[in-house]
# Entry
Amino acid sequence: MEYSVEYDDPERNAEGATRAPYCEPGYIQKYLMGIVPVLLGGADEAVDSAALSEAIASAEGLGACQTFGTDSSVSALYVSRDIGSDGTQVKFEVSFELAWKPTYAGSVAVIKRVPVIDTHEPVARQVQAMNLPGPASVSGNNEAFTAASAADADTEHVGGSSSVNPYEALHAFMRFAVSPYFNAYVSAKEKAEQQHDGPGGHRDDKDAQQGVPMAKKKLAELELSLLHLQQNVDIPETVLNIHPDIARTVADCRQRQQRATVDAVDPELLLDSGFLNQLQGDVNGWIKEIQKVAKLDREPASGTTSQEINFWVSMERALERIEEQLQSDEIVLTMDVLKAAKRFHATVSFRTDTGLKEAAERVTRYNVLMKDFPVNELLAATDIGRISFSIEQIFAHINKKLKLTAYPVRRALPLVEAISRDFNGQLIKVLSHVRLMHMDYADFDRLFRDTQGAFDAWETQVKEFANLARDITRKRSEKFIPIKIRAAHATLQERFSFVHQFREQHEQLQQTIVRVMGSSVGEREESGDGSAIGEIRLAYDGVRHVDILDVTAEGAEQWERAETAYNERVARVENQIIVRLRDRLATARNASEMFRVFSKFNALFVRPKIRGAIQEYQTQLISSVKDDIRRLHDTFKRHYRRSEAYTMSQLRDVPPVSGAIIWIRQIERQLDMYMRRIEDVLGSGWELYAEGQRLRADSASFRRKLDTRPLYDAWFAEISRRDLTVSGRVFLVTRLRATGLAFQLNVSFDAQLITLFKEVRELLWLGFQVPHTLVNVARDGRRVYPFAVSLMETAKIYRQTSHRLQLHPDVLSLAAGYRRDVMLCVSRGMGLKWQSFVASSGLYTGAPDSHENRTASFVGEFAAVVSVFQEKVETLISLNDAINGAVRELEHCGFSEEAFRAVLDRIQALIDRLNLDNYANLEQWVAELDLRLEHVLTARLSLAVQAWIREFTRPPTSADGDDDDNNQGDQDGGEMAPQLRTLVHELRIRNQV
# Structure
């Protein structure tokens, strides 16, 4: 706690005057006289004031005040209050150090904020003061003083009915002053930086901000440590009484640097029965003192986890100290003296009677679990995430160590319950730092999910612990005990879940009103919806200030009253919603519009009043959904191969099995959409209604038919039966009966491999777990696929080209060269196998000599050779047809040199093209063509000669030469018949005699 008192200083200089560095002691004395009585005053103010004035006015007090004000190396001044032994004498002391003693009643610590006190500024602005309580008080009396003197100053308190523990005072100061002060400053600074920098701003002091969580953690750890100091269970200090003669003997031996033995003891004492009886009595007293510690135990069901841990750790230290005493020279000499005196009944059973060995063994076993117990991670957690993590750490430690130690299961159960109490307390502590009912719902929901995650982590870990505890109980053959843990946080978890559900329903109600009751403020006000929103907010204000973390009976009663008031206000809003909802449904033109209305108001159907108001519309829409589901079922009955989707799948290169699965899943998605419509109509929890149960049963039956697993299993069984592999030779030569057992070149590649890799690709995309071996085969098929398709297409082209060439036997010899190239390429590829193509991922690149590149390059070479062969054959057939046409034209062209030359020149040009294209056996083929031309020309010449003969041998008939023979000659010779004009010579004889 900090106080400040300001006093007017009449001797202050005017503003702007030179300020002297000297600080008057009286300036600080006035401040102390005002602040100390308020913080340390007792019952008699006059006595306290007089004692304080005397202490401050003394030479030591004046010197301390002046040094504190002017010396920059002195940062704190302490004014301590002390009471006399009779409880009435009061004394104050001003110093720079604190001293703890039974009569110390408290002190005021004055801490400077500046190096030197400035007399021109109020002292309160330059210092801060806090009170530190002590073990004595002014209300104490002589008995109190005596108790304080006799007890330990760290744990006992005097004065009145209340006690003062320094750890408790420091813990309260840290928890209620330092930590809140630090958190408030950090939160305010973060908000200011966010407002200044905006959402995307960068902080200049990023390094400092990163240290804030660590500082919070350290403060929490300090607070936790102070709490542990309060909770420590003190183990009584055992001091074994030593006989004075024994102690004197040991001291003498140590001076002479000799080992203390029985011989060093005065022989007369060894014969003195009184002395021996005293030693034996001391030993019996030791046994009792040790038994007080050895038999000490605590009930783990009470207190905290830290108390259980600290108890056994402290017990171990206490037993170690006892063992050290038993090993001391005094104890050993005492036992030796009794043994020498034949007092065996006191020495033989000493260790057994004390129970020290058994206690040490038990403590050692228990501390296997207790040491390094990570409970501090839980108690020092500053957020929910750290709490969840600490719970996992704690149970991981317990489950690991419980197997290795003999810590009883019956004791571990209450230990876990103590952890639950710590867990509950830490959750309340963290959650109490935020105003849960004032948070935005989104932030509250995130916090709830984080907290629920912590609860889930607890449940998971407790289940594992319970299974382990049962297993350990069975292995140890311990008496059966029910493994049941009463979680202290169960009530908090139930309350938090209930409040989250309450806030969720409130948020749904509020958002639905805003969403469906008008988009503008004016529209809402006109329809009365603005008042509905305001009513909802007012209803929530009634529960906003309830402490939901208070799970006591009073807290539950307070919440019930607030919830009742909330429900009364919400009921009025529900009436407005019902009116608006029925209006919307009445004006809907079709079922689709009704579904849209229902989907908007769906969140409110959990309220019985609203659900009952729209029941008639629900029946109508449910009937519509039933019809849709029935039509969907009919579509499924028609099967995939008779659907339009099958045709579209073929166009999109979707394999049959994957296409059927996709089609079924489309139907399943439609069914899900229809079921969502049912939820829109009936609201959340629709499956609880009678109609909803029937629809759910029908949809479940239909959904079982939509299971795609049988399709996949059947496909997998078929593929496994075929045992498809990418292996064997590439080319296969067969003989076909249809072609007269002629040989035919084929590519030996199973087309099912192409379908396989497409199916595997689609099935993996659909989420099926295809076996790895089958995936490898499909991957190999996909790698070989481009080569196989290229080879198959090339072989097909070669077969088609060869078949076409067979239809033109007159040019077979010309294409023999290109066909030979194809055969040579095929002969090189006859030794290839598909395994060599698996390693090739594309066209050959890089080093041409590598095996993979040679394999890949063969495909391109084969395609190129066959392509050339096809091109040359097409060209050859085209040129051959042109030559044959020219030969046929030569048979009927005009019988003249020009006509013959034109045809022959055209034939020669075609032959030149054949020569340029490098066709084989061209000379022989041209020779055969020459013979054909010779036959044609010879035939035409023969006809021409016959026409000439007929022309010269026909008899003259008429002047015009038109007779039947001439006509016959025209018919036989055509244009080859000569056109001879008949000459008529008339002889006239004159001068006849």
Summary: The CA atoms of residues 218 and 495 lie 31 Å apart. The chain has six domains: 1-161, 232-371, 372-488, 499-588, 614-705, 722-878.
